[in-house]
Amino acid sequence: MGDPLGLLEHVPELARPARHPVVKKALASGKPLKVYRALWMGSLLGWFPQDTQAVRAVLKRRRLFRDEARAPAMFRVNGVGFALHGKEDLNPEDGSYIATHFFTFVFLPVLPVGQHLVIAAEDGGWHCFGKVPPSQWVRAWRGLASLAVLAVAGAIGWAVFQGGRVNDVVVENALEVPVVAHVGEVRIDVGPTARTKAEVATGMQPVRIESIDGRVLEEGELEVRRWADVIVWNVLGAAPLYLEHVWYTEHDAPVEERPAIPHCGDRAIVHSDADYMYRPAPAEINSSSSSSVIWQTHFDLEEGGWSICEDFLAGYERYDEAAALYTAQARVTEPDSVSRAVEAMRIYKNGPAALAWVEAELPRLESLELHRVRQTLAEAEGVDLSEEYAKRQTAAPEDPEAHYLAARALTDAEALPRVRSAALEFPDHVYLARSLAYLLHHEGHYEEALVAQDRLHELDGATDREWAIGRAHTLAAAGRVAGAVALLDAEQPQDLDEHLTWTWIKEQAGPVPVPALAEQEEYIDSFLLRAELGEREDLAALPEHLAELGPLLELIAAVHDGGDVTAAYEASPNGTEYMLHPQTMLLVMGEVVRGGDTELLARLENSGALGSNGRLAMRGLQPGADEDAIRQLPRIRMEAALFAYARQPHVTPERAAELRAEVAELDYVKGTLANALRTWTFREGVAAP
Asked: Is 265 helix (H, G, I), strand (E, B) or coil?
């Protein structure tokens, strides 16, 4: 029998068990650990019925099965590695014992790898004499560790499997009302101007957004992509979300920046990677990368709410999307008021689109407010609605709103007698009372206007401010400046035109403190206000973000000082027409017409400056025109247009002098027009008053 280890010579009680084929083969291999495993399996399976106890006794003498060819690897880095621990089966004669070879973590024994026969060395190490079979407790520890590893691996696998089946979806709501989102089978409640996150199954999921009362606001689909960092449904496309690229570098060399991706108007937003989501990117990072530039991504929400997206869409001439957003938000947040949405579209110079949108809404939402907005837009676009609204009035003679709208579609001069009559028939209708007070003032019937303003104040007590403003203007126009100033002192101006007009009126009664707006350097209006009040800016000292204001301020200065207005207007930026005081703009119009520059005239006509009033003025200023068109303008506009008319080459010097005298009499504000009367020059032989 082959026994290269000489095991049978030292342990004769194994003679019979060694006859078993498996044990016999293990003995012949000369590998002691293999012999141990064969004997252990035989004792467990009953291969040696007569010698079971003897074999088990031999198996306890593990030193017999020492494998001298194996030595343990021992090293640790920061407590992680391999080391010997413990002391079993100590031999007092030579000091040898069995130590356990462990994998350690933070110096703690975690997993037994094997057991070795060793003697402690004087230098603190060990002399190793070979590997021995593991003890029962080592086998148990290994089994438990294996089960733990399997459990952890299973948990990780399950988490990966589950993570692939669901992902986080954010519903972003920029509206000022709460909504309910249904994404797949998940309901997500989202508060006003808020966001909510929920787990949703991966795949293409249907989306339905509802108001709290169950009205469906929109429907669509969202791809819930596995492992994607950003999965967002942007309600109505209203939230100003964006993805920007952030770069980091150690060098000062310029980096070609990557454009941000704006998501105004986008509903379903999915990005695979975002390093920073709804949190700011750090100013600097630490990296071991050898790349000269490190790019990362940042997904977030711009401050400012849904109005930012309104501006963005209209500004980039995405009018269909803007109209869809305006319509949706108006229906959700202000179902009976759409003027804000229409005004936003008109500001971005697309009056036809705004008018078409309003007319499409009228069948669904028949309201006085919507008709008023429609008339305003139609007037600005030169669309005559007078016949349509006259028929409406004829069909509904008992409806005060029909009378009001019919008069509103006419010029001021044509509307006044009709409004007078309707206000007598319907004395409690607030809109008719307001129109009567406005028309009486602008047609120069100041004493009647004061009575009408008091009646309006009785009807609508909430219009205290409106009453005070209107009455102050009428008192000033009637020459009763002290009474106007007393009313103005009780109110605070709210916009550029009010600051200007109030200051000019008050200056007639004495020095006026500098308006607070003029001292707010960060606002464009503060610079415009100071310019219209005659102050001159150091243009070189303008803040960088307001540098484009320089040409505009030069234009205002030219108007006030009688300079070359045409050249200054030519140098001014696009949009100038919307930033000037109406009287200032009318004087500019007159100079452009007088100069005859066809390109500048085309710029004026395309801008739609001052709407229908601007078109009337332009028509009346043309060579060969008479004063009729100009005299159809509201009084405060007519004064400036008459002055501009007096400068036209086809007007005789005698008539020009008469017109300037009339303008001086009519001008109750004593602002831009008063400066022009004083500083502008006329043809030779005709002096300024």
From this structure: coil
Q: What average pLDDT does this structure show over 365-385?
A: 81
- Report yes or no: 553 and 525 within 8 Å, Cβ to Cβ: no
Which residues lie closer than 8 Å to 195 by C-beta, 6 or more apart?
170, 171, 172, 173, 278, 301
Please compute Rg for the chain using Cα positions: 45
The residue with tokens 């010097």 is 653
Q: What is the pLDDT of residue 27?
A: 83
In DSSP terms, 77 is beta-bridged to: 80
Contact by Cβ (8 Å): 453, 474: yes
Report the distance separating Cα 579 and Cα 120, nearest Å. Answer: 94
Write down the residue that tokens 């005060």 correspond to: 400
- Rounded Cα–Cα distance for residues 543 and 549 (Å): 10
| Cβ–Cβ under 8 Å, residues 646 and 587 | no
Classify residue 648 by its DSSP letter.
Answer: S
The confidence score (pLDDT) of residue 331 equals 67
Mean of the pLDDT values across residues 632-651?
86
Find where tokens 């012999």 sit.
35
What 3-state class would DSSP assign to 100? strand
Q: For the residues 338-355, what does the mean pLDDT come to?
A: 59
Structure tokens at 209: 């957004």
The pTM assigned to this predicted structure is: 0.56
Residue 534 CB partners (closer than 8 Å, separation 6+): 560, 675
